[in-house]
Design brief:
Layout (H helix, E strand, L loop, with lengths): L5 E5 L3 H13 L3 E5 L2 H10 L4 E5 L7 H11 L4 E6 L4 H9 L4 E4 L4 H41 L1
Parallel strand pairs: 1-2, 1-3, 3-4, 4-5
Helix pairs in contact: 2-3
């Protein structure tokens, strides 16, 4: 399988970043990592990612704060929280801020990969539909303009 999707892994734990990166790259994804929220924001500002995996507890900000900031600049990116510290508040904050999912550490990687594949497939299909709608709109608009000129 060859995937063109880009994934940003945000976690301050080096072993978790390394493990996620290795597993996702083995599946064909392009993976970049950030060790804190500010690094993730800088990367997201300068790059386009299809999906982000965000640790709830980061050294410089909470993952929920990072998600809120990312929502302002990264429309269309799928965002999953990853945490070893589950709580009802974190889950509610994740949902309220528009997270697409929530994984608990230690991660069960078969389920993890299946969920990522499913969400990225939905995103790709949605983008194809949007592109088709835009192409249809342009064709219709061109015809309308041609008819106005004649």
């Amino acid at each position: 399988m060859v995937a063109n999707e880009k994934i940003l892994v945000i976690d301050d734990d080096e072993s978790i970043r390394h493990t996620m990166k290795a597993i996702l790259e083995k599946e064909g994804y392009k993976v970049e990592c950030a060790i804190n929220g500010n690094e993730a924001l800088a990367k997201a500002k300068n790059n386009s990612y299809d999906l982000a995996l965000i640790d709830i507890r980061l050294p410089d900000m909470e993952g929920t704060e990072l998600l809120a900031k990312m929502n302002q600049t990264t429309s269309g990116m799928i965002k999953f929280f990853v945490t070893g510290f589950p709580s009802l508040k974190n889950a509610m904050d994740a949902v309220n801020l528009g997270a697409d999912g929530y994984f608990l550490k230690p991660i069960e990687f078969d389920e993890f990969l299946n969920r990522i594949k499913t969400e990225l497939k939905k995103k790709k299909e949605s983008n194809e539909i949007d592109e088709s709608k835009i192409a249809d709109f342009i064709k219709t608009r061109v015809k309308e303009l041609i008819n106005v000129e004649t």
